[in-house]
Design goal:
heterodimer; A: mainly alpha; 78% helix; B: 24 helices; globular
């Protein structure tokens, strides 16, 4: 990683990254749990993943250890795959129940 | 060569011929083996494969060929071949004949395993196998419920004995760390250990089950429910001698446990007398022979108890000849009369079925111990050993022998002499049935030559042959002077002759038939009802067991177990009813629950640090 970027990252204290990441993650969780629109839920999942990515990058820069960034790439890759699956399910859901409301899918009710 | 004698095939159509050919082939293989075997080498063990190899326990699937197993192999395959041949005629109009032959062959296989096994476990496989086949064949005519009861009775009684064998194996393994006969016998010599007494006692319990001794003998007479060739093969010639075989096999152990030998001696004597007395008043031709078998097995055990293993094996051999002959003869009579078994409805058959009559006469004479027939030599050998031990035992056994003579000649006279009292038209059996009869008759006559005593110019070849395999035989000594032996034989023969005369007067001159049991005097009725031993067992074991079962059903089952089990079920249903509500099917709710759980875990983990 280029030295300038590292310096730029380090201008912000680590605590702030952690805090920001935590906030983003919480928003993601809240979105997944409380929203009913499946598209929003998928986006919130992405949000959570990216908050973790952010944290990993920040730590990577502070510890001068590029290994964490390898994880980031993996996460992005998996996230891309996950989104394709998720969106396919979404399409099927739209076709079958004509809605993207996650609460429509309650056939497993005990 | 060994595999040749093990080869067994099931077949459908030509079952009889094929089965006979197979077992005859086995017999030929056994004879070849016998010819090529050098008794002085002491025996060979042929290991086929490692069967069980767990931790310190190594049990190979191995066969042992030595004088003892060869003797038994010759008996099993030889008599077996004749009986297979006989069965072709006897079973020709039975629709399940192929099944019959398959089971008969399975039996022969199991019996060969039993006698050829090189360790207790292999023998035990055969032991269980013959028990199973016995069960199958007794219940062969499964449409009659009583026959099924008889089969089950035999099976259960045998199981009791089998437990004894298992326990003995466990004890021996614990003590010696192996189940191989040869190793155990090597290690055991000189050991003086109460454990040996326990082990031999357990072995003996097994032997009482298989060889129908007190207290487990009641199954054998009932086992006559099976087809007659089965009675001849399994319940007279081979399977019932398994207990004796096992004892001779472990003769070294028994030599080290004199206490067990005494018990064997007395049980053998008691069985011989008890069974002989019951035989006096039976009216079913096969039942008489069955009790006679039990009684003769008693004699063999007496010989074992006296430490005279060669005499026991000798009697096993001659008994196999003449008892198979008698059973097959009885089968031929039954066949001739179209299924009639009650001797009160026979009589005067002498002229109708000549071959059967003549061979049956030879068999009867042999079992009664008329001089120079096979039974004479083997029984007199046992009697001589008994006399050496104590005149009391000799007296009891002599009395038993006289009873044997009496009931056997009663049977002979009632069946073949006098006037015919039945209805069916008697006809001679086909050649397949009469040939085995004739062969066995010849064997019954000359069987004594196998172990001709010194007195008659022989040198007891069978004893010396067997000595190479069963070390216990080396301990036996017969130290009676020639004069004593002659006197003993003289006494026996005279009394036997006298008893035959009495029987002749009673059953030929004035045919005396037993009336109904109710009209008999008390003591006689008791004997005729087989000393009421079946009833005794019923009262002792069956009733308490039934009582226990009934009460357990009423109390433990209905009052305790049922409410308990139903309670568990009800509780599960109720809990399920409550918990079911959690499953809303709402994805968000589930995720929330998951999150809460996750946080909970996190908190707990952090707190505990």
């Amino acid at each position: 990683m280029e030295q300038g970027i590292i310096t730029a990252i380090r201008t912000v204290p680590l605590d702030h990254y952690v805090l920001l990441s935590f906030l983003l993650f919480s928003i993601g969780v809240a979105g997944v749990v409380f929203r009913r629109n499946t598209i929003i839920i998928l986006m919130c999942v992405e949000l959570m993943l990216n908050s973790v990515n952010l944290l990993l990058t920040a730590f990577s820069a502070y510890h001068s250890d590029p290994r964490a960034q390898v994880f980031v790439f993996f996460i992005m890759l998996v996230a891309a795959a996950e989104v394709t699956v998720g969106l396919s399910i979404l399409v099927m859901m739209k076709r079958n129940v004509d809605s993207v409301d996650v609460n429509q899918l309650n056939r497993l009710k005990g | 060569m060994i595999l040749a004698s093990l080869r067994r095939k099931l077949s459908a159509n030509v079952a009889g011929g094929l089965a006979t050919a197979l077992i005859a082939g086995s017999f030929v293989a056994s004879v070849l083996l016998f010819m090529g075997f050098d008794p002085t080498s002491g025996g060979r063990t042929v290991k086929l494969l490692d069967w069980i190899d767990v931790g310190g326990m190594q049990i190979p699937l191995a066969l042992r060929i030595d004088a003892l197993s060869l003797t038994m192999m010759l008996i099993v395959t030889g008599i077996g071949s004749l009986i297979h041949l006989y069965s072709i005629g006897y079973m020709h109009d039975d629709e399940r004949a192929p099944t019959f032959f398959a089971q008969l062959n399975l039996f022969s296989f199991a019996m060969l395993m039993l006698v050829m096994g090189s360790n207790f476990l292999i023998t035990f496989i055969g032991w269980e196998g013959v028990g199973l086949c016995s069960y199958l064949l007794i219940g062969f005519w499964y449409k009659t419920p009583e026959y099924n009861y008889a089969a089950r009775k035999a099976f259960v009684m045998n199981r009791i004995g089998d437990v004894g064998v298992v326990l003995a194996m466990v004890l021996l393994f614990q003590r010696f760390g192996t189940l191989e006969y040869a190793s155990i016998m090597d290690m055991a010599s000189g050991v003086n250990d109460p454990l040996l007494i326990a082990a031999t006692l357990f072995l003996f319990i097994g032997a009482t089950g298989k060889s129908a001794q007190i207290p487990l003998f009641t199954w054998l007479p009932d086992a006559m429910a099976g087809p007659t060739p089965v009675s001849a093969l399994i319940h007279a010639a081979t399977m019932v001698t398994a207990g004796i075989f096992l004892t001779v096999r472990s003769s070294v152990l028994f030599e080290l446990a004199p206490f067990t030998k005494d018990i064997i001696l007395w049980i053998g004597t008691a069985t011989a007398l008890l069974a002989a007395s019951i035989g006096l008043f039976q009216n079913d031709i096969k039942k008489v022979l069955a009790y006679s078998t039990v009684s003769q097995l008693g004699y063999m055990f007496v010989a074992l108890g006296l430490g005279s293993y060669s005499a026991a094996m000798f009697h096993v051999t001659t008994h196999a000849f003449f008892k198979a002959l008698l059973f097959l003869g009885a089968g031929s009579v039954i066949h001739a009369l179209g299924g009639e078994q009650d001797i009160r409805k026979m009589g005067g058959l002498k002229g109708h079925i000549k071959i059967t009559y003549f061979t049956f006469l030879v068999g009867t004479a042999a079992i009664a111990g008329l001089p120079l027939l096979s039974g004479f030599f083997s029984k007199d050998l046992i009697l001589a050993f008994a006399f050496q031990r104590s005149p009391v035992i000799f007296g009891l056994l002599l009395f038993g022998a006289l009873l044997t003579t009496f009931y056997m000649f009663r049977l002979l006279f009632l069946v073949f002499y006098g006037t015919y009292r039945g209805k069916a038209h008697p006809h001679e059996s086909p050649l397949t049935m009469t040939i085995p009869l004739m062969v066995l008759a010849v064997l019954s006559v000359v069987g004594g030559l196998l172990n001709l005593p010194h007195l008659f110019g022989g040198h007891e070849p069978m004893k010396h042959y067997l000595e190479t395999a069963a070390a216990g035989i080396g301990y036996e000594h017969l130290e009676l002077s020639a004069l004593t032996e002659i006197i003993l034989m003289g006494i026996t023969t005279t009394l036997v002759g006298f008893v035959i005369y009495v029987a002749y007067g009673r059953f030929v001159k004035t045919t005396t038939l037993e009336g109904e049991e109710a009209t008999m005097p008390v003591f006689k009725r008791l004997i005729a009802q087989r000393w009421r031993i079946d009833e005794l067992y019923r009262a002792l074991f069956e009733k308490p067991y039934a009582w226990l079962s009934t009460n357990l059903l009423a109390v433990a089952e209905k009052k305790v177990m049922v409410p308990l089990m139903n309670g568990v079920g009800d509780a599960a249903i109720r809990v399920g009813d409550v918990v079911r509500r959690v499953q809303t099917g709402n994805a968000s709710f589930h995720l929330l629950a998951m999150l809460c759980g996750l946080i909970l875990f996190l908190v707990i983990t952090l707190m505990s640090n």
